[in-house]
């Protein structure tokens, strides 16, 4: 999970339209008033086509987006099409959260809070900062973010980062190959990639990363593009437990 920016709301959600859709939902709570092309497109864009919670890729086979209501629509019908209450979610996370009352049981909203404040990583599992009764732990438990299938998917993509770093370290004397290789690896750890919080963490905590960075600095090959991607990794990577 990484910090996200919602951006401007869709033109479709003008004030009068919001009122109209809200009243329609209140009259018939089976009405899916939030299922509109503009709403879906804007939500997907805001999260780089990823689930706002688990960061899995959306709009691919077996992983399509569902519009998630942070304040559940059954308890808070007035927020049913409130732009700030809508999140892009995978089916798994949406079902796990279900009708949780986030007012009574607060969890992380990545559009409003930085998950780095609440979560840390160890061995591809998430751990809460602040103990068993913390917002981080409630988020992990509610969304089942340490589900074994999810952890396995994360492990598999992070394994590729470690493999790539081993190859670069073995070819440290081929400075151009190393420069191009670290650029490619950094690109794979940016916010638009699935599980980017884990990928960035893996890269930054790989023992060869600092060595390769220093070699490139010494050879005047650590340029602004590499540094920008590296700093972005530092921004989104969760802390080590």
TrEMBL record:
The GO terms this record gives for MF are: endonuclease activity; nucleic acid binding; zinc ion binding
Give the matching Gene3D superfamilies: 1.10.30.50
Outline the extent of the HNH domain.
51-99
Task: Name it.
Answer: HNH domain-containing protein
Species this chain originates from: Gilliamella apis
